């Protein structure tokens, strides 16, 4: 396939969500799947065939095989609510210019209260039109006219968090012996939770369990997992692991983690892992808190929260 698309200002130029849906439906309908025949059928319904095919190919959903275009197996039907989620997941995980541009664009959005929003200026609004319009067609973002700002739709906050994770990539770094020992305890606690999660979800879903903290210390969570449902219908579970004393279960929560917890609500979990004096992990004593922003910080919670810690450093 030609890389001429890579010379465009935006790789999303000429791409429309309706065209993506049309091409996927045609690939499902046609027994004959040669590139020429698929293109002919596609042009009866839509335009920009090269851009649309390039998108599906480069995010890994359509493959070229012996002169034919082959749709990935088990892709939900386009009218299925899970179809959009599947596209978004492939988009954010793919190693492509689509991913790079998505991560860069959504990196401009910020958490403000209970929303994720962004205000563009005249120049950037024009430069961002291709990617912005595509995300709006998908329903990922919306425009609030009277406030002149764009917001991430509530149902797609998980997609934003994954893109934000890539944008704020911060490799783990150990600075001192004391910090290294503390990090090693935290790492063992995280590994214990990864093993726990893989057992909990079972072999069919265990590949969804990812130890995010190993590659990004700024994600706002340590482990990405799923609810134990079916392989075609999974709900994300964002897990922050805290190694705690078995006596107090006291833990520290960073502002970034709190922001992500507030944004994700019941999809965000705190796993408190008791670690003994000999660094043994009390796996049978895990405390799992769903929606900890509400449970720990909300009114009527059973946790003592101290807000008077002040961080100081030289200017």
Number of helices: 11
Backbone CA Rg: 22 Å
* Strand portion: 5-15%
Can you write the helix and strand succession as a string?
HHHEEHHEEHHEEHHEEHEEH
Task: Characterize the main sheet.
Answer: 4 strands, antiparallel
Principal-axis shape:
globular
Beginning-to-end CA distance, first to last residue: 53 Å
The average pLDDT value, as a whole number, equals 85
Helix percent band: 25-40%
What oligomerization state is this entry in? single chain
Topology, number of strands = 10
Identify low-pLDDT runs.
1-7
| Spatial ordering of strands, largest sheet | 3-4-6-5
User: What structural category characterises the helix and strand content?
Assistant: alpha+beta
Account of the protein in words:
With 315 residues, this protein is of the alpha+beta class. Helix content is 39%, strand content 15%. The chain is built from 11 helices and 10 strands. It has helices at residues 17-29, 35-42, 49-58, 81-93, 97-106, 122-127, 129-138, 157-167, 177-201, 255-264, 292-297, and strands at 62-65, 68-71, 110-112, 115-118, 141-144, 149-152, 223-226, 236-244, 268-274, 287-290. Strands 3-4-6-5 form a 4-stranded antiparallel β-sheet. Strands 7-8-9-10 form a 4-stranded mixed β-sheet, sandwiched between helices. A two-stranded antiparallel sheet has the order 1-2. Helix 5 (97-106) packs across helix 8. The termini are far apart.
């Amino acid at each position: 396939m030609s890389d001429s698309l890579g010379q465009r200002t935006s790789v999303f130029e000429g791409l429309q969500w309706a065209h993506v849906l049309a091409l996927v439906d045609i690939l499902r309908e046609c027994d004959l799947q040669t590139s020429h025949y698929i293109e002919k059928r596609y042009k009866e319904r839509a335009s920009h065939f090269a851009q649309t095919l390039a998108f599906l190919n480069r995010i890994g959903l359509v493959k070229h095989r012996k002169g034919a275009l082959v749709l990935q197996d088990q892709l939900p039907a386009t009218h299925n609510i899970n179809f959009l989620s599947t596209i978004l997941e492939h988009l954010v995980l793919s190693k492509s210019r689509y991913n790079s541009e998505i991560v860069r664009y959504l990196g401009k959005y910020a958490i403000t209260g209970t929303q994720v929003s962004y205000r563009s200026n005249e120049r950037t609004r024009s430069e961002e039109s291709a990617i912005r319009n595509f995300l709006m067609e998908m329903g990922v973002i919306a425009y609030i006219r009277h406030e002149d700002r764009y917001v991430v739709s509530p149902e797609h906050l998980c997609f934003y968090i994954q893109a934000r994770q890539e944008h704020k990539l911060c490799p783990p770094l150990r600075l001192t012996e004391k910090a290294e020992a503390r990090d090693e305890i935290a790492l063992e606690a995280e590994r214990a939770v990864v093993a726990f999660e893989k057992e909990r979800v079972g072999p069919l879903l265990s590949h969804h369990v990812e130890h995010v903290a190993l590659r990004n210390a700024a994600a706002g969570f340590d482990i990405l997992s799923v609810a134990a449902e079916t392989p075609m219908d999974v709900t994300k579970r964002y897990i922050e692991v805290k190694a705690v004393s078995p006596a107090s279960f006291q833990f520290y929560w960073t502002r970034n983690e709190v922001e992500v917890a507030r944004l994700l609500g019941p999809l965000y979990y705190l796993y408190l892992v008791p670690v003994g004096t000999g660094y043994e992990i009390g796996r049978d004593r895990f405390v799992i808190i769903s929606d900890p922003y509400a449970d720990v910080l909300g009114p009527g919670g059973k946790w003592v929260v101290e807000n008077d810690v002040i961080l100081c450093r030289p200017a």
